[in-house]
Known about the structure:
Blueprint: H1 30-42, H2 52-58, E1 62-65, E2 68-71, H3 73-79, H4 83-86, E3 92-97, E4 107-114, H5 118-132, E5 135-139, E6 146-150, H6 154-166, E7 177-181, E8 185-191, H7 212-220, H8 230-240, E9 247-250, E10 254-260, E11 266-267, E12 270-271, H9 277-289, E13 291-292, H10 294-300, H11 306-318, E14 322-325, E15 332-335
Helix pairs in contact: 1-2, 5-6, 6-8, 9-11
Amino acid sequence: MSDPPFLDLPTAHSVDSLPVRTTTAELLDLDKVAAHIAQAVERRRYQGASDPFTYLVEKHCLVAVGTTYYATLAGILCFGRSPQQTFPTALVDIGRYRGVEAVSYDVIHLEKGITGTIFDQLSRVEEYLWSTMNRGMTLDKQSFQRIEIPEYPQAVIRELCVNMLVHRDYLNFLTNARIQIFRNRIEWISPGGLPNGITIENLLQEQAARNPIILSILYEAGYVEAFGQGLDTVVAVLKKEEMLSPHFHDTGASFIVSVYGRDMTLIDGQPMGSLSDTQRLLLSFIRGQGEVTPRQLREIFPERSERSLQRDIRVLLDDGLLDQLGGSRNLVYRATNRGA
């Protein structure tokens, strides 16, 4: 039987399933593998061997060449003890900018070289994006409960972070994966461009995973819901949320996905930029009811003093967001069509 090709030789095998010269099985953390197997079984996404070493071999995270086992790209990036010792550019950079261009004098936050496994990197970038995102508030029209409205849907954040890491070209040693956050959008930049046969025009219809082993491991871990449907999910969620469609750009060296955030100065079609949270909730409630009496407002916002409520109403009236109808005994407030 002939030996399998190493990573540095041309091959028909996927790059992430090839043994990496100079590596050993000891580079992989069997405790991480055991935890992954247990969680994948619990999610009903894996039914194979429970022994970590056997799993690694069957999953092409370890490949035998003669009597020696070598780690593969997928094994190192998913379960490695120090993945960047083998792949020094398997890193993620985060840049946050005050404006709409990536210029140095507009940098708010710069975090270069996020290390660890793909799981570690996903956890860090998702946590940063979600925790620093702008948020608005509105009221549920049925229950009158306060609802937080994020600038970007969480499903979109998850899918594009996964897409950036699972489909990047890890043999491109010139640059790291990058996330750039601007005032009006987020860009996910994946080194390597689109795979052969995939274009901007057909990427939602065709499927070509550059790293299918990594993709299958992320599926087992619950990060991927269905093979080949990540970008479809992004498009569908943004459409459902009535947000702008994502913009795809292939430079040849990188694949870039840009998503424009929800306009946080508008909630339910009304301008909200200078309003307090309570004023936003008041306006959402009134718009949902059509007409509201002062007594109804006091019942919905019992923690707010009457004087404070009157002050909030006065702000909405002065901004032209509310109309006041009737006299003192039959007074009602009605939302205007401004900004709708």
